[in-house]
Amino acid sequence: MSLADIVKAAGAVAKRYAPREEIFAHGTPSDDGVCLVLQGTVEVFHPGASGTTRAIAVHNPGSYFGLSALLGIPRFETAKSANAECKVLFLREEDFLRYLREDKSFLSQIFRNTLQRLRTIPEHLIRKPDRVLQIDEMFGPGAAEKFAKIRQQNLVTLEYLNKMRNKYVSPGKKLFDRENDVDTDVYLLVEGTIEQYWKDEALVIALEPGAMFGFLKSADNQGHVLTARAGSTTAKLIALDDDILTKISHLDERLAYSIFQNMVLTIAIVESEMIHPTEI
Question: In whole angstroms, what is the distance from residue 191 CA to residue 174 CA?
């Protein structure tokens, strides 16, 4: 089932935009939700000096954009339809929760399609970011606080899982690396810090408790693109897989939305910082 079929079955109504029509502008409120391209192509621009703009991404069907809505901050880009009509779904938190209540299959379908979007990014297109990733630099002032709230919601996962899934990693030791094609889990960081590195041992991002990571996989879901290592203290984690993520999400609607935020924001970070804009 396509994403268009999923949201249509859940009662969603998409908006149509004529060629070159503006979808939203930089600095406007984002309370109408995160955007999902259902048909056509969307071009995204960042404001430049002296009122100019520069294209940063092109989004095709199945791609999310306007992700400032997941953080509750104003739009930090301008989006327009490309040279043909496009169809866009705006998905707010309340919409997500309503669809979840009305159609029990919605959750597993949207998770499956979102993960597929992330895991089908060709690995050869993923490059080392130009700098260590910092949330406020990527998403603007206030984003770090919003991410902290998402991490706090992620920790609700602890209420639904027993201690059998706990995992401890000693300071400086690896949790997984690019060569380990056996480990395909997603992880929730409970205590300590995790640092993720590129293949040349350059630091990509440092994660704090509540972070959910490991969505970015190598080809055919075999292993991870980045290496993960405990920081200066022992890291306590919970190992998760797709089936467990879906099961616990059915038990807690807010947690389901939090997990969805993690997936989509991971896509945003990869596409904005680790892939050349023309390759998205």
Answer: 15
